[in-house]
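Hi W., the guanosine-5'-monophosphate complex you wanted:
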Amino acid sequence: MRDFLPPGWGVQGERGIAFVITGPSGAGKSSVINELLRRDPRLSFSVSATTRPKRPDEVHGRDYFFVSREEFLRLREEGKLLEWTEYQGHLYGTPREEVERKLSGGRDLVLNVEVRGALAIARAGIAHPVVLIFLVPPSWEELVRRIRARGTESPEALAERLRIAREEVREIPRFHYLVVNAVLEEAVEEILCIVRAERRRLVRWSG
Ligand code: 5GP
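Structure:
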């Protein structure tokens, strides 16, 4: 490839790329991300810190770093979070060091964050390309159905998730890609296409 390029030029895939996947509750982010990680061994997951209690199927250090509120606030004070947010009464944040270490080691990173976090990561000035992908269910009716199907939602929690979702979709025009998750396999396939295309995007690294 070098033979054909002027000095200083390359393709984005030579260095780590951050793929930020956002979408309202019920879009299916976690399922899509798990499948992406399984399908593309060059992708690795950015594990966030959270004060939310662990769910039975989750593993500390794999799904999240489950920390106390005090620990979270300390990480934030010490500048160890690239961004953070409060969502439904719990704190969530992206550990800066992990992101930078993986990206500078040439790994492509997948981040599962809500909308404000995604936009904050794009603004954070990390020395790697940030690709913003917004995932939606095929319709509002389907979104409501998926949130209800989780079964754990009280009417208030459901109303709150829908209110947040309405605010979130207003930000779609600030993203690079919109993917509809009607059929999991198809959504995953589309995101893998985006990943491959972004790796081939020409970029001028220097001079
Ligand atoms: P859950 O509690 O269902 O795992 O996640 C709730 C929301 O928090 C999801 O929209 C998820 O994308 C978001 N989230 C998870 N980790 C982070 C993070 O580090 N930063 C931000 N801004 N949002 C996060």
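The mean pLDDT is 94.

W.
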